[in-house]
Amino acid sequence: MELNDYLNTYVEYRKKMKALHLAFFLLSWDSSTVAPKGCFEARGENVAVLSQMEYELTTAKEFTDAVAYLYDNRDKLDEITSHEIEVLKENVDKQLKIPVEEVMEAAKLFSVSNNIWVEAKQTNDFNKFKDCLEKIVAYERRYVKYLETDKLKGYDILLDEYERGMTTKEYDQFFDCLKEKLVPFVKKVLAKGNNFDDSFMKKKYPADKQKEVCEYFRDVMCFDKNKGIMMESEHPFTSGFGTDDVRITVHYYEKMFTSSIFSCIHETGHATYEANVDKKLNETFSGGGASMALHESQSRFYENIIGRDENFWKAHFNKLKEVYKTQLKDVDLNTFIREVNKVEASYVRTEADELTYPLHIMLRYDIEKKLISGELEVKDAPKEWNRLFKEYFGLKVKKDSEGILQDVHWSQGSFGYFPTYALGSAYGAQFLNAMKKDLDYEKEISKDNLKTINEWLREHIHKYGASKYPKEIIKIATGEDFNPNYYVDYLINKYSKIYNIK
Amino acid sequence: MELNDYLNTYVEYRKKMKALHLAFFLLSWDSSTVAPKGCFEARGENVAVLSQMEYELTTAKEFTDAVAYLYDNRDKLDEITSHEIEVLKENVDKQLKIPVEEVMEAAKLFSVSNNIWVEAKQTNDFNKFKDCLEKIVAYERRYVKYLETDKLKGYDILLDEYERGMTTKEYDQFFDCLKEKLVPFVKKVLAKGNNFDDSFMKKKYPADKQKEVCEYFRDVMCFDKNKGIMMESEHPFTSGFGTDDVRITVHYYEKMFTSSIFSCIHETGHATYEANVDKKLNETFSGGGASMALHESQSRFYENIIGRDENFWKAHFNKLKEVYKTQLKDVDLNTFIREVNKVEASYVRTEADELTYPLHIMLRYDIEKKLISGELEVKDAPKEWNRLFKEYFGLKVKKDSEGILQDVHWSQGSFGYFPTYALGSAYGAQFLNAMKKDLDYEKEISKDNLKTINEWLREHIHKYGASKYPKEIIKIATGEDFNPNYYVDYLINKYSKIYNIK
Asked: What is the value of ipTM here, to two decimals?
């Protein structure tokens, strides 16, 4: 057997795995959008079998032999394949450590858990979700046990999965840095309060009008409708399969009209990243984003850095006034800018402002760390959530649907995901700094559309997909390693101006 | 190896195939509803790989050995498994005759062909579809060559696939019988003409109102929303995976409001059949309907026999008047009944009346027979279509979108399917005759809902799924073999009254 034989074997297996991934992509999309509730039980069984089929492929001796050989000879491979094999070898080594029964059990669990969570959240009843979450946490604890090494243990294994190289050590440092500089600043801002007329926010904004506005912003962001669709679901998300099928969902709250605008811009940010990946990566495992934090850096760059900038709204506020003639009749641009950058202590992470947002993440990080270590049990988690919330925000949680039940992530077993949101925001601020050296940022975001900015992000970040490690991409895009000071400086500068803090 | 070992092997393979079927079900559903156009090229490749995976399973020696052993020992199996093995053995034997390259090529072809057809139909341009249809017909001709036996050749192979035991010999007899008695009767009816005010049909009926009406009839038919959904697509269809996930689509033409009513009732008829199958058949290959004609017998029973009956509309016409207040203000029940049973020569099969419908099928049957035999080529097919249309209906086809491009079937390679529509109608009339012996049919269809009728159909037909041959089910349900005279008598009686023909 020569290099090319192994490579052919590898490509044959990859094709089958990619085809199964298409099935998983559609199953997940369908389950979160239109699937009838009655189908989930039977579907769970079938998803488990498909997972078993994927497992059989990834653990087939023929495949693992090919990966091992290619790994040892990766200096002879092209750069993209070499990177892919390196990442895969780690994953194959990991996957071999998880017993097949666990994999099937997990697939079954996660095929029904989302629906149980939706039901619990809708009825504001944590008890409906408790048993399910216990099973999930028990699974996560077993999962990290299977994977522990001398270097990585417990929660660190999950953190590293979402952002390679980031563990509790790095995250503790990152959050400590934010706490030191931002927490006192947030206190100053909250003390200032918000003295402006925000009564327009309490008006009713019909769902069909919100849909029109979301479609408008999708066009402002130049998202190609031929490559994706937008639908409704309980929790907004982006789901993609290659560069030519990228789907987003939003949720229209008639009494919170800015929510769908910013979640649409956020999800379209994710979608733009996926769609801008070099097309040749479609047939590889290196399509999509390079990491969770890099993905969030893009969505939050569009949502917060651009989407809440005064210059951006100078170009688009008239569109809102046109669609919501009666509701926004007496509202001027300044008031609107003030509103979408309003800082306050609030319950729901997805509705939180840019400045207090990291506090929501710190809380989840803390709970996840304790749940995985066993320091905290699921039954005590709502109490702990509410205790920490009081400590960070000074507010008493009134209902679990606005507390521990608010996020979809844990129902999908996504422990270790949340911290990447804060990290992503920090990456974004560093990209902004680099971008400003290459183009007239203020001018670009004042235009009808974001074509030039998309192009910069495509060229410096998106096109690489996952064919490089996040650290490499940050170095390429900004010329330096990750530095959280850009984020802190950006936030303090921006909100000092808005809140008139010297 | 003993019987139980072979049975276990069989069940393990079946599980994997069923899981792949779930993937195919969702791929097809998604492609026909929301998928972005840009994704189809890449999707085609992946669907081909999934088909290859299914092919590898169905042709694996371990599996075919198990099937062969179980087939030889099927007297030792339970009745359901025995039937399943018998059907499967035939299919496995057939599938082994098709080279894997052909299977993959076909999967690729059919993953893009639907979209090409939609585009051609929308732009009324047969040339856009011609190359694709040529490829499909060439494939069908090769396909029947691979499968020919001493008993079955050419088009007969396709006919037998959709309705076991029906070949050109039986269909020629069936259509000859209809031609002999019905064609002269249709001429009498057409000569009578339609002298009533149908101006309400030309009014505009908004899509959202039509949706409300469709949802109402879905409830009249007692369809469980927990087990299915209703969406929009170019051509209405039903798609199911087991008893708990049955999906229908409709299309709302604002200038043809009865179209969506009857296609909703029709598709919900298919869906009711699927949902009423005994749940224990879900994990087998014997779920769903027993044959295409039996499926159509159910959809057309609901659509035509019940859905166009005066007594049915006595119960539901007021709902229509309530929803379409202005449009139906001056329309009375008798006019409406007359309208929905109006006989006329028309272009579009799916909009054709109950009486002339079989003529549309005869035309397609004739063209299919010639296309498969090679007597007719695709490039000449529109001309032949138009010639036959003139002969049967006395009308000149003005555009291909209302001629040869009107149906989705050929774009999916479904040759041999059309004749089952006429056969299904004939089965339906025979079921009606049997049902009337057990219940007060006129009374039941005058009720708010069709619960009792559903129950009769469930008990006598639906529950068996595909665990028996169609001929067996007809015998069980009606106590006799198929007899086309019930159909002819039903049509002549019904339309003699409506058109006052002695």
From this structure: 0.83
